[in-house]
Amino acid sequence: MRIACLVKPVPDPEYYNRISIDPVRGILTRAGIPVVMNPTDRHALEEAIRIKEKMGGEVVIFSMAPDDAGGILKDGLAMGADEAYLLSDRAFAGADTLATSYTLAKAIEQFGPFDIILAGNESADGSTSQVPPQVGVWLSMPSLAGIIRMEYGESFRVWCDVEEGRVEYEVTPPVVFAVKRGINTPRYIGIKGIMAAKSKKVSIIRVGDISVDLDRIGLNGSPTRAGRIVVPDIGRKGETITGSPGEIAEGIIEGLRKAGVIKEGMI
Ligand SMILES: Cc1cc2nc3c(=O)[nH]c(=O)nc-3n(C[C@H](O)[C@H](O)[C@H](O)COP(=O)(O)OP(=O)(O)OC[C@H]3O[C@@H](n4cnc5c(N)ncnc54)[C@H](O)[C@@H]3O)c2cc1C
Fold first, then answer.
1. Which of 6, 94, 163, 214 shows the greatest Cβ crowding within 10 Å of its Cβ?
2. Which atom belonging to ligand 1 lies closest to the Cα atom of 5?
3. Rounded to two decimals, what is the model's pTM?
4. Residue 5 β-bridge partners
5. Atom 19, ligand 1: which residue's CA is nearest?
6. Is 132 near ligand 1, meaning CB less than 6 Å away?
7. pLDDT for 87-140, tens place per residue?
8. pLDDT tens across 65-74, in order?
9. What is the CA(53)–ligand 1 centre distance, in A?
């Protein structure tokens, strides 16, 4: 069983207060902010390694990100992945989800074939959930998203969260799976894993290393145009209510009434 796992580096949530908007270009300024492995992708990787441990095979990480993301991929190798490809080239920059998924799919095709592609259900920053199903479309593979539980044997039984409940599927690879965080608890990276990762490879893939249509990558291949980006004026104000628990509750209700959140006679 060959499993490709998609891992996206995202800005470290500890530093979110340092992300700003460039007022001229209308894009996010993330320079100097450390990156971490997208939290959901850690769960995707854990599931990929569990499948490998049960069924044999190998887990290969694919990531499209700048060169400095290599450390995150090393973490993935320390968790138990076998190999990692980092797609990093100025030609890939400015990609929207379509160009991102195309580039990832072409690399997966080149270094494949793979039976399963495992991804996080959404990234912590862009959070569109578009990349995994789009990769499926580029590779003509079916995809399932919102996966909260999986069982594997001859076929895969997969439980997906949907708005009104949960749907159970039975599928046979090749298939793309996008998993949610509740699916498992990612393993702790121990010293043994860190030592093992030293002999594993992170291969940097430049644009010339994969067979891509240059009109489909980076900004050229991105039909999405970001509109005006503004910081909403939240204008929060605080008020301290003191007194007995009953007086405080009355004060809260009065405040909600004044703000028009609850109407006269509702409580
Ligand atoms: C016009 C435009 C220009 C942009 N320019 C840039 C830019 O210059 N630099 C930049 O960083 N972003 C840029 N972005 C954002 C970029 O498009 C998204 O970060 C990217 O397409 C992933 O989308 P998402 O975060 O919504 O992923 P989702 O679809 O929410 O991610 C779901 C899962 O897909 C996988 N995945 C997603 N992205 C990657 C990846 N890159 N590598 C491996 N796996 C992945 C992960 O498993 C992830 O959990 C741009 C967006 C637009 C619209």
1. 6
2. 47
3. 0.87
4. 61, 118
5. 126
6. yes
7. 999 999 989 999 999 999 999 999 999 999 999 999 998 899 999 999 999 999
8. 999 888 999 9
9. 29
Question: Does 27 contact ligand 1 (Cβ within 6 A)?
Answer: no
- Rounded to whole angstroms, the Cα distance separating 130 from 123 reads 10
Asked whether the beta carbons of 77 and 49 are under 8 A apart, the reply is no
Ligand 1 midpoint to CA 96 (Å): 6
CA atoms lying within 13 Å on the CB side of residue 141: 26
> Going by CA atoms, what residue is nearest to atom 16 of ligand 1?
96
Encoded amino acid at 111, one letter: F
**How far is the centre of ligand 1, averaged over its atoms, from the C-alpha of 101 (Å)?**
8
Residues of the chain with pLDDT under 70: 25-27
